Amino acid sequence: MEVFDAIRSRRSIRAFESRPVDREVIDRLIDAATYAPSRMNSQPWHFHVCTGDARKRVAEVMAMNTAYVQEYLDVLGPEVIEYAARFYADLGSAPVVIGISAIRVDDPTAWLDDAIAVGAALENLLLTVVEEGLAACSLTAPHWIRDRLVEAFEVADGSELMALIVLGYGCEIPREKERHTDIVTYLT
């Protein structure tokens, strides 16, 4: 698959088949993520792969999101809340959940660099998901339950959970959404 094809066909999927993803495939996803650029090749990311009982613990914590319905309404709007509640109840039945963390640094410039590197690693992983015939949805760690997620993912002290990826074999095909067109200014 060409890179541009993977970029254009990647979608956020929120409904999955329950069949497991082979460990070798997960290893390829993580390997691809590690080729992302980072400040001075610092590779600030750490991946926490949860399957089986560990995945169930993460899903139980994520289901707590529905306890914050008013906050969700404020963020998502009432038309999306039912869909979100179904997804968070069991993470769309995705068999794999990956957390990405990074060691928190005090220097704001270095922290921004690390956050951008984690984002690049995340995108490498998501594009490899497409290449592998899988589906995924990336989430920033929900703020309401972040401490419980840190515990569920066994994130080391001094590190911050930055993103989650639920993945597996998708059982939905969302339509392509329009892209913004007023996003560039050319200066000469």
List the keywords.
188 residues; 44% helix; NADH Oxidase; alpha+beta; four-stranded antiparallel sheet
Structure commentary:
This protein is 44% helix and 15% strand. The relative contact order is 0.24. The chain is of the alpha+beta class and 188 residues long. The protein has helices at 3-9, 23-33, 52-63, 69-76, 78-90, 108-131, 146-152; strands at residues 45-50, 96-103, 135-139, 159-168. It has a single domain, classed as NADH Oxidase (3-Layer(aba) Sandwich), CATH 3.40.109.10. The longest helix is centred in the middle third of the chain and has 24 residues, at 108-131. The chain is globular and about 50 Å long.
Runs in which pLDDT lies below 50 for 5 or more consecutive residues are none
Order of helices and strands: HHEHHHEHEHE
CATH domain fold name:
NADH Oxidase
Rg estimate, integer Å: 17 Å
Provide the spatial order of strands within the biggest beta sheet: 1-2-4-3
Residues in helix, %: 40-55%
* Text of the CATH class: Alpha Beta
Q: Average the pLDDT over all residues and give the rounded result.
A: 89
Total helical elements: 7
Q: Alpha-carbon distance between the termini?
A: 35 Å
Strand-pairing-aware structural class: alpha+beta
Q: Globular, elongated, flat, extended or rod-shaped: what is the shape?
A: globular
CATH architecture: 3-Layer(aba) Sandwich
Q: Please count the beta strands (DSSP E, at least 2 residues each).
A: 4
What fraction of the residues are assigned to beta strands by DSSP?
Answer: 15-25%
Name the CATH homologous superfamily: NADH Oxidase
Largest sheet: 4 strands, antiparallel
Q: How many domains in all?
A: 1
